[in-house]
Design goal:
The complex is a heterodimer of chains A (about 650) and B (about 190). Chain A is mainly β. Chain A has eight helices and 43 strands. Helices cover about 10% and strands about 40% of the residues of chain A. The longest helix of chain A has 22 residues. With about 190 residues, chain B is α+β, with helices and mostly antiparallel strands. Chain B has one domain. Chain B has five helices and five strands; from the N terminus they run αβββαααββα. In chain B, a hairpin with a 2-residue loop joins strand 4 and strand 5. Chain B is elongated. The chains are: A mainly beta (about 650), B alpha+beta (about 190). The interface between A and B is medium-sized, with 15 and 14 residues. Chain A: This is Nitrous-oxide reductase. Chain A: It is found in: Cell envelope. Chain A: One of its GO terms (cellular component) is cell envelope. Chain A: Its main location: other.
């Protein structure tokens, strides 16, 4: 008995201690789903969402349009990747959109969506998005939701600090995430990085009316990694702020070697000054090869032009153009407050979020308040303390990006601690924090980079979902989370899965987009060289071994629908014109054995599918978009004869007593 | 006629001029796929609206295409109607009740002939279908209603006076009212 008592004397405290210890486990940030969440995100059938959200598709290379607050996917807009669903990048008309100086590149890594702006407000005209891998910027027309233009960036490796635009979309920028030797440089060893590798801050002029892009100039800057950028606005509208890391200039094992310095930089560029220098004829045109691809809505076709040179300004030669501001450590986002006075940099390995003052920056420049020990590459480095307004203390781990609402608050995403932190811009005091599931990258407040943000919501764009949805094997969806920011406390409303990786998104009030919507293309304005304006013009024409089929589609037949005289060895071009002139009546086209994809042709549009038959046979073709009650009947045959046959070209469609036109 | 009556007759004739600027009749079509509706407006000399879409849809049932040039009415009507208005104005100017009666009679004849003609066209379009049509419903015709609504397959077809038509009818009723009033006056005098 005694031994048992002794044992209990020992065990009991041990048990109590372990219970107490367990109870001491620190609590997690609590999931704060809004009690009224279902009401706040419910958009009744037939009703419209309040906002469009344009999210990058990340490694899908595309852009997706969602409705907010419902999170419903409205459309995937093909941009940098071929899209078999509608023939983008497969049809003869769209193939030139994906041309680059490296040839046809049918994929890219899409990162940041950027809505065009007027007076610092989203105007709903265009959406820009950068391709990171083969450096490009695309422009999407938001009246048609079509990619209208893609321009390649020369001298850039990884176009990541892109495509942020100035207050009136005068310029959009791109800059290198992987500094490289300039394109004209000869073969050099990789470890000559410090000597030969450079950044090229690229300013692309955007036409005020048409939106067309042209590389205006490149500022040649030190060979660091340029991560993100934002334009100033209001007081700071003439400036562009880039974040940089790897000021160590490492070229191997960057995760260690690019994380040594306590501070990297924010690079402040006076673009107005650069523009003035260019107007004075400063800078040098340097040979460079890059593609400029433009879609024409009248010919329904793209053309690709290979550009030959680019205007470069070496920033060391022009004092006052560029300044560096030290910033703790490996900064990621560089975000500007709605009034343009503060810029917030998030050192992803830093313990604080520094908030810089534009006014103080100008004063420091005025006083030449430079750090003398690090006048890097001949560019003045301002003193951290003289530009700093203050720091947000203990914000969380891994701060990445900051956006602003209309009430004077800022929201910063925390990758490592997987949360959003709300803080007050004027006092830098932390107000609230909310967990995200999981590992948030960018975040997005509607109009969050505008002079007058729309506010109301913040969307978390997450990299990892793990257990948040029904599992789908090893490859899981990524997700966005909608959070209500109307109260003091942030409240989670909705999780929704996304296409690809929802890298960054921007949202805009729906009416700014809906008022410009194109419902169909006017047939009389179709200037496609192979268009037919009526069924009477349909025909088949042979030129050598090229056969052009001028085909029309209208409910519910393709014309012609019997084609003979094609021979093995021919290249057949089906040019399909959709004769419909009504909303939401696309027709599709597919032919057996085609090595491309289908065509999806909007009313009034013409598209071309190239087909090289591989055998002598009868091949059916048909409409792929369920267009009408007699869609299944919308089909035809093409006969392919042996190469040496003498079957003449012939084509027909059965006498149609119903078609008077 | 009283001066007041003559003024009203003049106004009613003048109101009818609006028929040259406003649509007289409308055909409305609604279907699940067309929540916004399709429509045609019938003017004194034209048909406007979604004619191409309606023709496109009608080809499934083998209905003839609606083509403005097929209607000789549109070439004649502007002159006929100008004559009617002129008679009305003359009746007001002349002031004799007989002329008002003639005018009102003309209006009634015009309405009866017009609606009959409209009905015959509707009958022709609704019954005279192509035997090759893809959709054939035994016993079914597609004649739209003269006035009112009728379900035709997936379409609810409506046929109603449009703003111009309403004004003309109202003006004619005004003229009729004046005529009745003047006839009563005359009877009292006797």
């Amino acid at each position: 008995m005694k031994s048992i008592t002794n044992l209990s004397k020992v065990l009991l405290p041990a048990i109590l201690a372990s219970v107490a210890f367990t109870a001491c486990k620190p609590g997690k940030a609590v999931d704060s789903v809004d009690g009224d969440a279902s009401k706040k995100v419910y958009v009744a059938p037939g009703k419209y969402d309040e906002l469009y959200m344009f999210a990058s598709g990340g490694f899908s290379g595309q852009v997706a349009a969602y409705g907010l607050p419902s999170g419903r996917l409205l459309k995937v807009i093909p941009v940098f990747s071929q899209n078999a669903e509608n023939g983008y990048g497969y049809s003869e008309e769209t193939k030139p959109m994906l041309n680059t100086s490296h040839g046809f590149v049918p994929w890219d890594d899409a990162h940041h969506t950027q809505l065009s702006k007027t007076n610092g407000q989203d105007d709903g005209r265009w959406l820009f998005i950068n391709g990171n891998n083969t450096p490009r910027i695309a422009r999407i027309n938001l009246s048609t939701f079509k990619t209208e233009e893609i321009i390649e960036l020369p001298n850039v490796g990884g176009n990541h600090a892109s495509p942020y635009c100035t207050e009136n979309t005068e310029y959009i920028v791109g800059n290198t995430r992987f500094s490289i030797p300039m394109d004209a440089t000869q073969d050099v060893p990789i470890d000559s990085y410090k000597e030969n590798f450079k950044g090229a801050a690229t300013f692309i002029k955007v036409d005020k009316e048409k939106g067309t892009m042209n590389v205006a100039f490149q500022l040649i800057v030190p060979g660091y990694n340029y991560d993100l950028a934002r334009a100033g606005k209001g007081v700071s509208k003439d400036w562009m702020f880039f974040s940089t890391y790897n000021s160590e200039q490492a070229n191997t094992l960057l995760e260690v070697n690019a994380s040594q310095r306590d501070k990297d930089f924010i690079m402040a560029v006076n673009w107005k000054k650069a523009e003035a220098l260019v107007a004075q004829g400063k800078g040098k045109r340097v040979p460079a090869k890059y593609a400029h691809n433009v879609w024409d809505e009248k010919t329904h076709s793209a053309t690709s032009t290979m550009m030959k040179d680019v205007l470069m300004l070496n920033v060391q030669d022009y004092p006052g153009l560029v300044y560096y501001i030290p910033c703790p450590k490996s900064p990621h986002g560089a975000d500007v407050s709605p009034d343009g006075e503060f810029f917030v940099a998030s050192g992803k390995l830093a313990a604080v979020i520094p908030v810089f003052s534009f006014k103080k920056m100008l004063a420091a420049i005025e006083k030449q308040d430079f750090e003398d020990q690090r006048a890097d590459m001949g560019i003045p480095v301002l003193k951290y303390a003289s530009v700093l307004e203050g720091e947000v203390e203990k914000p969380g781990l891994g701060p990445l990006h900051t956006e602003f609402d209309d009430q004077g608050y800022a929201y910063t995403s925390m990758f490592v601690s997987s949360e959003i932190v709300k803080w007050k811009v004027s006092t830098r005091e932390i107000i609230d924090r909310i967990p995200t599931y999981y590992s948030i990258g960018h975040l997005s407040v509607p109009g969050g980079d505008n002079k007058k943000p729309y506010g109301k919501y913040v969307v978390a764009l997450n990299k990892i979902t793990k257990d948040r949805y029904l599992p789908t094997g090893p490859e899981l969806t990524q997700s966005a989370q909608l959070i209500d920011i109307t109260g003091n406390k942030m409240k989670l409303l909705l999780d929704f899965p996304t296409i690809g990786e929802p890298h960054y998104a921007q949202s805009i009030a729906a009416d700014l987009i809906t008022k410009n919507q194109v419902k169909f293309f006017k047939l009389e304005e179709n200037h496609h060289p192979y268009a037919v304006k009526s069924e009477k013009d349909t025909r088949v024409v042979r030129k050598g071994n090229r056969v052009d089929v001028y085909m029309s589609a209208i409910r519910s037949h393709l014309a012609p629908d019997n084609i003979e005289g094609i021979k093995l060895g021919d290249e057949v071009y089906f040019h399909l014109t959709n004769l419909e002139q009504d909303w939401d009546v696309p027709h599709g086209f597919a032919v057996k054995g085609a090595n491309t994809a289908e065509l999806l042709v909007m009313p009034g549009e013409t598209a071309t599918l190239k087909w090289t038959p591989d055998r002598s046979a009868i091949f059916p073709f048909y409409c792929t978009d369920f267009c009408s009650a007699l869609h299944q009947e919308m089909a035809g045959y093409v006969r392919v004869s042996p190469a040496n046959s003498n079957v003449p070209i012939s084509y027909k469609i059965g006498n149609n007593p119903l078609a008077k036109k | 006629m009283q001066v007041r009556s003559r003024i009203i007759v003049a106004i009613s004739a003048a109101l009818m001029i609006s028929a040259y600027f406003l649509p007289l009749w409308q055909i409305i079509l609604e279907a699940p796929q067309y929540p916004e509706g399709l429509g045609m407006k019938i003017w004194l000399n034209n048909i406007t609206g979604n004619i191409d879409q309606i023709n496109g849809l009608n080809h499934y049932i083998g209905m003839k295409h609606i083509i403005v040039d097929d209607f000789v009415e549109f070439k004649v009507l502007p002159y006929v109607f100008a004559f009617i208005i002129a008679v009305g104005l003359f009746a007001a100017y002349d002031g004799r009740l007989t002329w008002l009666k003639i005018w009102f009679g003309l209006l009634v004849v015009f309405a009866v002939v017009g609606l009959t003609d409209f009905y015959l066209w509707e009958y022709d379009y609704g019954h005279n279908l192509d035997p090759m049509a893809a959709i054939k419903v035994p016993g079914m015709n597609y004649q739209p209603p003269l006035i009112g609504y009728k379900q035709l397959l997936n379409f609810l077809a409506g046929s109603l006076p449009d703003i111009g038509g309403v004004i003309v009818v109202a003006a004619a009723l005004m003229a009729g009212g004046v005529m009745v009033h003047e006839m009563r006056l005359k009877n009292k005098k006797i």
